[in-house]
Amino acid sequence: MMVLEGRGLPMKFGVLEGPGSPGCQVSDYCFTLSEAKEAVEWADVVTFEFEHVDDGVLQEAQQLSKLTPNLKAILPKRDRREERKLLSSLGLPVPRWYPAEDGREALRLLKDQFNNVGVVKSAKGGYDGKGQYFVRGDPSTAPIRESKEPFVVEDLVDFDYEASVVAVRGKDGEFRTYQPSFNVNKAGILIYSFGPTGDEAMTSYARRLAEALDYVGTMAVEFFVKESSVIVNEYAPRVHNTGHHTLDAARTSQFENHLRAIAGLPLGETQVHSAYGTVNILGLSDVPKEVLRYGRLHWYGKMEARKRRKMGHVNVLGEDIREVREKIDRVLSLLYPNGLDL
Ligand SMILES: Nc1ncnc2c1ncn2[C@@H]1O[C@H](COP(=O)(O)OP(=O)(O)O)[C@@H](O)[C@H]1O
Ligand SMILES: [Mg+2]
């Protein structure tokens, strides 16, 4: 999507992804993973849509001063313990949490500190809910006891809703945000989001984080909201699923703004021109054409559909949030007539 959104800008795109992949279908050059070194040499700027990539490529790009955003923004995302420490050190409110060296310690902390009601998350490599265990009572069946991997153990937050803010920061430090969205996740994965909503705390937290990381590009911060108190869940050092509505609802999309930022160009306007929603297409290899009555389809062209895999999304627009939510419900019932299999 980033390449498609960059077509109006004076740049060429090389993508490091397997042949036939969504990025390679639309880019000027396609590099295989074994050509990573050549790809980094070829580019003036190296960026990413997914941060769980080989560190070697990132280090190489950083050494040549091409990696944007830089490693400082990515490294805390390699380990949830580091991310939480960073957020706390900046004075951002996070759920009560403890680090655990392995599964046994995680279960002990869960019992001693959380009375066996909490969330145990793999410290490393998790996204879209991977490596997370929600415990409400006896955790003896949780498959983490024998794990030698580190974990974060935290409060199971009884939030009223989840929200996120997508922000962009330019090379000159200019900072802009899209208005926050409401997000609905199930089994750790985003099903749909809608907005706009407004919250000073969210945008100021995002700014504090972006400035502390010397961040350049688009980023997102996810929140839990309970009785108007805002808790930071995590951040994402990249374009974000909850910013996909900007393709249709904003003057400049999060993708174009990311490209503008990393290329040192002026940022584009971030206002939305209507209420909006995004419905994720999860695990489907095809879409009922009727969804086009309600919104705009963005199909990623991934080679194979798998359970929970994000295959595309539908953006809907409306006069107000009520209209948007009606359209979201219609799209959901067309996509998942028998409910969502997660
Ligand atoms: N501590 C928590 N309390 C309640 N729900 C949580 C908690 N942590 C995660 N979740 C739920 O799981 C989703 C995914 O977790 P998150 O920490 O954002 O990891 P990921 O990196 O997989 O997105 C969240 O958006 C939320 O719905
Ligand atoms: Mg998340």
Automatic annotation (TrEMBL):
Documented EC number(s)? 4.1.1.21
One biological process GO term for this chain? purine nucleotide biosynthetic process
Species of the source: Sulfodiicoccus acidiphilus
InterPro entries attached to this UniProt entry: ATP-grasp, ATP-grasp_carboxylate-amine, ATP_grasp_subdomain_1, PreATP-grasp_dom_sf, PurK_C, Rudment_hybrid_motif
EC main class here is lyase
A GO molecular-function annotation: phosphoribosylaminoimidazole carboxylase activity
Residues of the ATP-grasp domain: 84-263
ATP-binding recorded as keyword:
yes
Q: Name one Pfam family in it.
A: PurK_C
Q: Which UniProt keywords apply?
A: ATP-binding, Lyase, Nucleotide-binding, Purine biosynthesis
What is this protein's record name?
Answer: 5-(Carboxyamino)imidazole ribonucleotide synthase
